[in-house]
Design a protein that fits this description.
2 helices, globular, 8-stranded antiparallel barrel, 11 strands, 37% strand, alpha+beta
């Protein structure tokens, strides 16, 4: 009888301990905040720009470059510190963080490079080339003189 009472008491204690511990477990059902290490909210369309040192929406702060390859739906973006400061160009390829290209020394026409990427600018037209000079993306800046505004657009050029 004493063993039965002992087993019954032990069972009750274990049951109570299990109930208490399961109630005290914390579940982490909330996702971490949608922000990168710089505080940029990806869900709101923001990405960190190293050349501008702030969170930007690429469609608003960058020059849209259209793909010249078979997948014309892909776009890249080009960001400068400002339109007056073009010493460094930051290029955002689809699904990748920004990469900084340095301006070629002594080049007045506008050429920036990083590894196999080369960005060229001529009269407001930007071309991003990869290895062997293959043009990957192109875009330009249009200025509307009537309203004195600048529209940043992408164009796909026809190559002959």
């Amino acid at each position: 009888m004493q063993n039965t009472t002992y087993l019954l008491g032990l069972t009750v204690l274990l049951g109570l301990a299990g109930a208490c511990s399961s109630g005290s477990k914390k579940t982490n059902e909330t996702a971490p905040p949608d922000a990168d290490k710089h505080g940029c909210k990806g869900s709101a369309g923001y990405q960190w720009s190293a050349v501008q040192q702030r969170c930007v929406r690429l469609a608003e702060a960058g020059i849209k470059l259209a793909s010249t390859g078979p997948d014309t739906a892909q776009t890249a973006y080009l960001v400068f510190a400002s339109f007056d400061e073009d010493g460094q160009a930051e290029v955002f390829l689809p699904g990748q963080p920004g990469r900084i290209l340095a301006k070629k020394a002594g080049d007045e026409t506008g050429t920036w490079t990083l590894d196999t990427l080369t960005l060229s600018q001529w009269k407001g037209m930007y071309s991003l080339s990869g290895a062997k000079g293959t043009v990957l993306y192109e875009g330009h800046i249009e200025t509307d003189e009537a309203t004195d505004t600048t529209a940043i657009t992408a164009t796909k050029l026809t190559h002959r």
